[in-house]
Structure formats: C-alpha cells, structure tokens
Specification:
The chain is mainly α and about 70 residues long. About 80% of the residues lie in helices and about 0% in strands. The two termini are about 15 Å apart.
Length: about 70
C-alpha cells in the first residue's frame, strides 16, 4: 500500500536545492545567449545543446520538488 508522503526537506537542504536551481537557470540562459552570439555553426550547436541540458536539469529538480 502506497501512502501519499510529502518530502520532508530541512531548511539547509531547501537552500541547497534553491541554489542549484539558480545555477541551472543561469547556465541555461547564458548558454542560450552564447548560442545566439556564435557565428560558427558547430560552436552555436554546442552552446545550444548545453543550454537545453541545463534547462532539463532545472525541470528535473522542479519535478522532484513537486512529487
């Protein structure tokens, strides 16, 4: 039988998660911005893919918190 348990996260853990969320969104925005600034197609692609990786990381952390 499964119970609907909320995650019991202490204050310090929440601060760490918040800091990680901030890092992920910042990296997402930076890499996306770099991808728009690049003229070299290969470098543009690397930056864009990196931005998407950090966006996914951000979304995964949010998803974890919402479970």
């Amino acid at each position: 039988m499964e119970t609907d348990k909320k995650k019991d996260l202490d204050y310090k853990t929440l601060l760490i998660i918040q800091e990680q969320l901030n890092h992920e969104i910042l990296l997402y925005k930076k890499y996306l911005n770099y991808s728009h600034m690049c003229y070299d197609a290969e470098l543009k692609n690397i930056c864009y893919n990196s931005s998407q990786k950090h966006k996914k990381n951000f979304e995964k952390i949010l998803s974890y918190l919402r479970e």
